[in-house]
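Sequence in, structure out. Go.
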Amino acid sequence: MGGGELRLSIPADQPLWAEGIHETPLRVSGIQSANYSGSVGSTVGGQPFRDGLEVREEQGEFWGVTPLYSDVEITMRGVITPWSMVAFWLAGVETAPELSGEICVMEVFGTAPHEIGMGLHRFRDPNLTEDWGTVTHSLDISDFHTYGVKWRRESLAFTIDGEVVKRVDQAPQYPMQLQIAVFDFPDRADLVDGPVPVPELIVSRVTCS
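Output:
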């Protein structure tokens, strides 16, 4: 934090995330606005990426910012290459497995910098239907832009710089946490010639209203 910005980065010596457990090599720098999980050895926890995962380190319960039916916006820019990505999403805190839907406000891979991923992921919520896709946009991800969602009880309207670019006619019905992260994928190193810049996500503003 400094100068009115949050800067998330992945230096070259940062170790892998979930090494030996995640299917492919992955590194990440991220922040989330809440946390809930069970005791060590339990399977209670948010956004499991495969079946049978267990809690390895107990974390205190934390409810920081958990909006419900809100206008949520982030102003950010990313420094990415073909082997990295940036993302901002809302996820159910998962006090129960079915409270697991995700509102993906934006995700951009360096391999397709003009394809903005956004929409709704069902995961284990039986009341939701998967509705996620990409929106082609001429923006430069390295410049500051504002991405948002107008979350209502039965709808989601996704925006870029105030313009609605996607609508979904359903929505999660429970509080969600905010998650902001930059990722890189070491097994894609052959996609970049020469030294790889440090992936960064720079955030100047996040609002929930």
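Check: The mean pLDDT is 94. The two ends are 23 Å apart (CA to CA).
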